[in-house]
């Protein structure tokens, strides 16, 4: 019988964060069976592990509708789940987007585990005016709802995310989009999510991530988007090469999540850190 674990990532509270499935040993499972498990769980992602060595695994990620190359929150959930079994230390994950090492550490006082992933290489390119216009139409937003200080870009950290800055926190909070229209566009462009954010300060951000391509209205915490967004901020000069940022996500969904991220100096990758806790 296949063992299936349930964790929520980027929160120490089971009522917060982004739930993910974790299959510690998926040896022998077919793609249809993995997709079936992911669909039955109904979480935005489920991670399937294939042991390849000591503290080393090949990992695949499935949403309820499709496989994705890389998923941050399921990686954090997986690393904490493994850390509880094999102890703190580095876990080597081989994803379809490339190697993703994860460092699992224990808080010296509480003993609570957290995980820090090193993302695949990050890049960012300007979004086309047509793509922005179509996205705004699907969101029910106007151009005036965007913060002109942050240009729309498509950021990549193992998968693609359209990055759009909301002009106000109220605009970000009021999200009621056309699921079919945005899903069609994201599928056409191969975007995993649309990363909507509002800048509270130069290093503190609030985010929301519609995920219609995966059959999910919204992600409560999106580690891959956080990695891509951090690279976007660095590449466009909004943060320094070693500046740490904080991202609040899931608040408007009632599942508050906290993501910490930073660039890696002299490397094209970024780091994303979070906790995770088992679900009943």
UniProtKB/TrEMBL annotation:
Region span, Disordered: 106-127
Active site: 45
Alphabetized UniProt keyword annotations: Isomerase
SUPFAM superfamilies given in the database record: Diaminopimelate epimerase-like (SSF54506)
GO molecular function terms attached to this record: isomerase activity
Keyword Secreted tagged: no
Bias-annotated ranges (Polar residues): 113-127
Gene Ontology CC annotation, any one: cytoplasm
InterPro entries documented for this protein: Phenazine_PhzF-like (IPR003719)
Matches recorded under Pfam families: PhzC-PhzF (PF02567)
Keyword rRNA-binding: no
Family annotation (PANTHER family): BIOSYNTHESIS PROTEIN, PUTATIVE-RELATED, PHENAZINE BIOSYNTHESIS PROTEIN
UniProt family annotation: Belongs to the PhzF family.
Protein name as it appears in the record: PhzF family phenazine biosynthesis protein
Source organism (scientific name): Yinghuangia soli
Organism ancestry: Bacteria, Bacillati, Actinomycetota, Actinomycetes, Kitasatosporales
């Amino acid at each position: 019988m296949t063992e299936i674990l349930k964790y929520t990532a980027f929160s120490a509270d089971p009522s917060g964060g982004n739930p993910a499935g974790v299959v510690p040993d998926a040896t022998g499972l077919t793609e249809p069976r993995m997709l079936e498990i992911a669909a039955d769980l109904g979480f935005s992602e489920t991670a399937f592990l294939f042991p390849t060595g000591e503290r080393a695994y090949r990992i695949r990620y499935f949403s309820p509708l499709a496989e994705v190359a890389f998923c941050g929150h399921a990686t954090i959930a997986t690393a904490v789940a493994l850390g509880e079994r094999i102890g703190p230390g580095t876990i080597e994950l081989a994803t379809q987007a490339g190697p993703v090492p994860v460092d699992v550490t224990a808080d010296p006082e509480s003993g609570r585990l957290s995980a820090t992933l090193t993302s695949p290489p990050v890049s960012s390119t300007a979004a086309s005016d047509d793509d922005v216009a179509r996205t705004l139409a699907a969101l029910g937003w106007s151009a005036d709802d965007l913060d002109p200080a942050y240009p729309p870009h498509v950021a990549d950290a193992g998968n693609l995310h359209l990055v759009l800055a909301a002009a106000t926190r109220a605009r970000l909070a009021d999200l009621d989009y056309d699921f079919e229209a945005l899903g069609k566009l994201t599928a056409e462009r191969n975007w995993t999510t649309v990363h909507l954010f509002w800048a509270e300060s130069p290093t503190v951000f609030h985010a929301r991530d519609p995920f219609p391509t995966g059959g999910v209205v919204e992600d409560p915490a999106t580690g891959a988007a956080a990695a891509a967004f951090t690279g976007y901020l660095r590449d466009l000069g909004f943060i320094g090469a070693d500046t740490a940022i904080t991202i609040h996500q899931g608040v408007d969904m009632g599942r508050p999540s906290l993501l910490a991220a930073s660039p890696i100096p002299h490397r094209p990758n970024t780091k994303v850190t979070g906790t995770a806790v088992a679900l009943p």
